[in-house]
Amino acid sequence: MDGTHPAGADTARAASILDPLAREAAFAVLLPVLDTLVGEADADVRLSPDARRILRAVARTKPGNTLALADLAARSSTPKTRIPAALQELADRGYLARLARTAPHLTAALPAPTCPVPAGALEAEPHPQRNP
Question: What is the pTM of this model?
Answer without folding.
Answer: 0.67
